[in-house]
Amino acid sequence: MKTKLKLKLKMNLKIKLISAIFIAIALSLSVLGVFSYRSTSKSMESSVEENLMNTADGVVSSINQELDSVYRNVEIMSSRQELIDLAKGDISAKEGAFNYLFNIEKDHKDLLLNLLITDVNGNVLVTSEDIQPDMYLGDLEHMKYIIKEGKPAHSDVIIAKADNHQQIISVGYPLVSDGQVVGTMVAALKFENISKHAEKIKIGEKGFAFILDKQGTFIGHPVKEKRSKVKMIDDMGEMDESCKEVVDKMQSGQEGKGYYTYKGMKKFARFIPVDKWILVVEADYDEYMAPAKSIRNDTIFTIIVAIIIATVVAYIFINRNIVNPINQLQKLMNRAGKGDLTVTSNISTKDEIQLLGEDFNNMIEQQSNIVSAIKRNSNELTQTSEELAASIEEMTASNEQVSSNIQDVAGVTISQNDSIVDISEVLVQLSSLIQIAQRRAYMAKDNSKNTIDVASQGRVKLEETVSAIENISNVSSETEGILISLSKISERVSGIIETINNISDQTNLLALNANIEAARAGEHGRGFAVVAEEVRKLSEQTTAESSQISLLVNEMLIDINKAVESMKLSKKAVENGVIVANETDKSFISILEAVEQIGDDIEQIVDITKDEVASSDKIVKLIDTIASTSELITKDSQDIAAVVEEQSAVSQSVASVAEETTAMANELTSLVENFIERGEE
């Protein structure tokens, strides 16, 4: 059960270290990946929005220029006198007006579909195609406005059924004579000359531009079939609230931008009013975000690969440099705990674990020396016990003889009462001396207990040493995690520096392209403002990335400080281990001192036996005084005196140390019998 528990603890140590490294790496890379993806996404979105804005502005500018050009041309034509005369009712001017209009249309076939002159009521007097037309335009809103206000205007997009259902707009200008509107000059303009500016726009593969009228109908669209026939709201199908909001904004003539879904595809649109219409430039979200998604996928793949590699490397490193040495040291401690003091640590990791192994060897060597000393003392005590056993046998034999003599003396003890009283007093004194010897024996026994307590204290100190070792291991683990975190942050810094270099290259290339195109375009080089703006954006991105580098460097400094603190803790843990080892050494020295004290007590017991011998001599003298009572008593008394003297000498040796010596010898033997010293294998 203990083996399984230890194995589980070792596995937990390995799993904890690897888990900490895994979490640190995964978190760092995930944060970096998310930041990179979000930064790229925002950059792409900003770039596309800016591009659409610039494109829309360019198209609006082109359409306005086209309309302005038409208005100027119509204005010039309206100043022709024959046209004014015809509008005033001069029929003779009709032929001249017809020829003039015919030639103008002929020269601008690609732009104009027809030219017309009306009177002040809206009746068509002549066209560039018919000198006697039968047409009336007075009911058209823009014609009413021109005649009433005397200002130029144009119609909405109209389908010319007589001209292959072409889209046209009617641009009118007042014919003025003496400050009065006498008629109008009308040009039927092919709308494709205006819508082409939008229809030629291509945003990626799926993005394009189109034009809506105020009713939301497509009047300019890459798909011909939708022009002036399909409303955007009908083409969109079912829409959610956000999509409806964007479409409503478009149709209301507001300028803006927004996202909407068209047939399952997410679109981003930039819309801006142009004259009576709405220009919409849209881009496919998935298409222009493809690079960002590619970066996201590559980042995820890179993170997974990096985590796998880092985990494998960490697993190998931890096994080789931390777990295996600790396992080896644990096995050696287990053997030493079972009494095998021949174990030696051969760890060579060149770090705190190696120092721990060397301290372990020193501790085992000190314990081996202590056990050797205890064994020697145990052998000496054993020999003493054997001598005491022999003395006990002699004492037993003497006691038997005394018992026999006492039976003979019993018959004459009455006459010897006075002498016996004196003998009793002497025996009391001897008893007192024996009691003193007994107390000394108890003192020796107490010292033996102290020896056991000190040995137990040594075991406690050993457990504290193991605890200090665990502290060192934990601190080393924390240091390792911080150092790996520093390594990964360095990789992140390298990645950002590479990004900055790439952005700088793109900036230089865009600047070069802008200069070349501007030189080619001459006055029309304004169209390259997009490139110049892109250069500015890339420069801003470079600045942002540089800031990121600064943040990451700060993170590295913080982690370095953590590493320094962790190393300080490791040093403190090692110092604790050394202190504990020294205390253990002192405990075993106390054991030796206790054993020496036992020897001193035994010497004191020997001194006491000398006094008991003197008392025995006095007993002999008293017995001599009693000898006059009877020869038999004298003879028996002499025998008793000799036996008592012999018994005293033996009992002095036995009573003082016999019990304590035997117990101490057994205790010391049991303590050291499980230890195996070097040279005893």
TrEMBL record:
<dbReference type="GO" id="GO:0007165">
    <property type="term" value="P:signal transduction"/>
</dbReference>
<comment type="similarity">
    <text>Belongs to the methyl-accepting chemotaxis (MCP) protein family.</text>
</comment>
<keyword id="KW-0812">Transmembrane</keyword>
<dbReference type="InterPro" id="IPR003660">
    <property type="entry name" value="HAMP_dom"/>
</dbReference>
<keyword id="KW-0472">Membrane</keyword>
<keyword id="KW-1133">Transmembrane helix</keyword>
<dbReference type="GO" id="GO:0005886">
    <property type="term" value="C:plasma membrane"/>
</dbReference>
<keyword id="KW-0145">Chemotaxis</keyword>
<dbReference type="Pfam" id="PF00672">
    <property type="entry name" value="HAMP"/>
</dbReference>
<dbReference type="InterPro" id="IPR004089">
    <property type="entry name" value="MCPsignal_dom"/>
</dbReference>
<protein>
    <submittedName>
        <fullName>Methyl-accepting chemotaxis sensory transducer with Cache sensor</fullName>
    </submittedName>
</protein>
<dbReference type="GO" id="GO:0006935">
    <property type="term" value="P:chemotaxis"/>
</dbReference>
<keyword id="KW-0807">Transducer</keyword>
<feature type="transmembrane region" description="Helical">
    <location>
        <begin position="299"/>
        <end position="318"/>
    </location>
</feature>
<feature type="domain" description="HAMP">
    <location>
        <begin position="320"/>
        <end position="372"/>
    </location>
</feature>
<dbReference type="Pfam" id="PF02743">
    <property type="entry name" value="dCache_1"/>
</dbReference>
<feature type="domain" description="Methyl-accepting transducer">
    <location>
        <begin position="391"/>
        <end position="627"/>
    </location>
</feature>
<dbReference type="InterPro" id="IPR033479">
    <property type="entry name" value="dCache_1"/>
</dbReference>
<dbReference type="Pfam" id="PF00015">
    <property type="entry name" value="MCPsignal"/>
</dbReference>
<keyword id="KW-1003">Cell membrane</keyword>
